[in-house]
Amino acid sequence: MSVRSVFDDAPFASSAVKFAEDFKRDTHPDKVNLGGREYVGDQGKTTWLPLIQKIKEQIITDPTLIPEYQPILGIPEFNRKATELALGRDSPAILQSKVFGVQTLGRTGAVRLGAELLRSWFCSGSSWSGPVLLSSPCDESLADTFKAAGIQDVRYYRYWDAESSRVCVENMLHDLENAPEHSVVVLFASGHRPTGADLCQEEWKRVTEIMVRRQMFPFWLMPAQGLCSGSLDRDAWPVRHCVSLGLELLCAQSFSHTFGLYGERVGHLFCVLKENLLAVESQAERLVQTLWSCPPMDGARVVATVLSNPAHLAEWENSLKVKAERCMLMRERLRERLRLLATPGCWDNIIKSGGLYCCLGLTAQQVDFLSQRKHVYLLPKGCLNVSAINSRNLDYVAESIHQALTSQL
C-alpha cells in the first residue's frame, strides 16, 4: 500500500449545522440528541457549576476591574496557569523557560493559530517540512482549519477500527512509520472526538518512539483535561511524556467542557521549543493581531481565578471527577441495557472509552433508522455524547439501538 493511499480522505464526515437543524425541526416528544458537543447533566441541559457562577458574579461586580483591552497574547496569569495545568508546575519546559502560551478563541482558535505558526515559521526551518496528519476519524473541522491557514497537504492515519470497535494501534503505528519524516502529527491527549477511545500509556510510548525516530512534530489537542478519566494528571500524561523526552510541540487546550464556559470561547495554545522561543512568540503576537486582535476577558478571568486559588481548584477538580464518574455510569448502564435486551454484538467497548464521547460502530443505515424512525440522533458510525443519556431516556435509547440492529432495514 502506498503512503498516499494510506492517507486518503477520512471516511468520517458530517454537517454539524444540518444535524442541529434536523433535530430542531423534529417535533417528536421522545426525540434525543446524542450528537451534541456540550456536557449535559442528568436534567437534560447544560448548567453552571455553583463555583463558576459565583466567580462570574464576583468579576462582574468587581469595581477594580477596568473595561479595557487585554494584552494581545491574553491575560498573563491565565496563560501561566493554563500551561501549568497541562504540563505540571515542575515541568522541565516551564522551569527552563522553553514554553510560552497564548490565550485564544476556544480550541478552534488555538488550532488555527498553531496552524498559522507552522505555516509561517516552521516552513522556513527544519522542525516541520512534511504534511499534517490527522486521525481517521476525527472532528471534520480540523482539516478545514489547517487548510484555511494555507496548509493544503492534510492526510490521515488510521485510528479507529469499525469492525472491532476499538483503536487499532498497529494500524496507527504502521501509518506513522510510512508517513514522511518531519510530518506534523495531530493527536488527542485524551477524549478523542468522535470515538472517545484513547491509547494507554504503553501505547503512547510506542507512538512517541516513532515520532522521535522519524523527527515528527506533535500537535496535541486537549479539549477536556480531567473530564475523561477524572484525573488532570492522567489526561495530560501523553503531552508530559513528550516534554520529558525533549520533544518540541504545540498543544491546543479548551476550557469549555471543564468549566461550562461554552459561550465564552476560552482556549489556549502553548508552544514548547528548544530555541528561537522569543522569535516564535513575536510571530504569534503578529498573527493574533490579524486573527482576533485581542481575546475576550471574562471567561479567562474565571479560569485564572479558579486555578490560582487552592480551595477553588480543589472544588473544581472534584466537580470534574463527579462528571467523569457520571459519564462512566451512563456507559455501564447503557451496556447493561443492551446486554439484557440481547442486542447483537459485544458492547464492552462502551465502557473502555472515557470522557464525553463513545462510538458504537453502527452502519449508515442503522444511524438513519435511529434518527428517522426512533428520533434518536447520533453522529456517523454511531458516535455519541454519553452525557446526553440520562435516567429518563436511557431505556428508550437502548431499545432504539436494539431495534436498529435487529430490524430488517
Largest sheet at a glance? 7 strands, mixed
Tell me the β content. Answer: 5-15%
Mean pLDDT: 89
Secondary structure category:
alpha/beta
Please compute the radius of gyration using only Cα atoms: 21 Å
Spell the H/E element sequence: HHEHHHEHEHEEEHEHEHEHEHHHHEHEEH
Number of helices: 17
Strand order of the largest sheet: 2-10-9-8-7-3-4
Poorly predicted segments: 1-14
Number of strands: 13
Helix amount, in percent?
40-55%
Describe this structure in words.
- Helix 9 (201-213) packs parallel to helix 10 (232-244) and helix 16 crosses helix 17 (394-406).
- The strands form four sheets. Strands 2-10-9-8-7-3-4 form a seven-stranded mixed sheet, with helices on both faces.
- It has 409 residues and is an alpha/beta fold.
- The radius of gyration is 21 Å and the shape is globular.
- The protein has helices spanning 3-6, 16-25, 50-61, 76-87, 92-95, 106-120, 141-148, 169-178, 201-213, 232-244, 256-259, 277-291, 298-308, 310-340, 349-352, 364-372, 394-406; strands spanning 32-33, 99-105, 132-136, 154-158, 160-161, 166-167, 184-188, 217-222, 249-254, 266-272, 357-359, 376-377, 383-385.
- It is built from 17 helices and 13 strands.
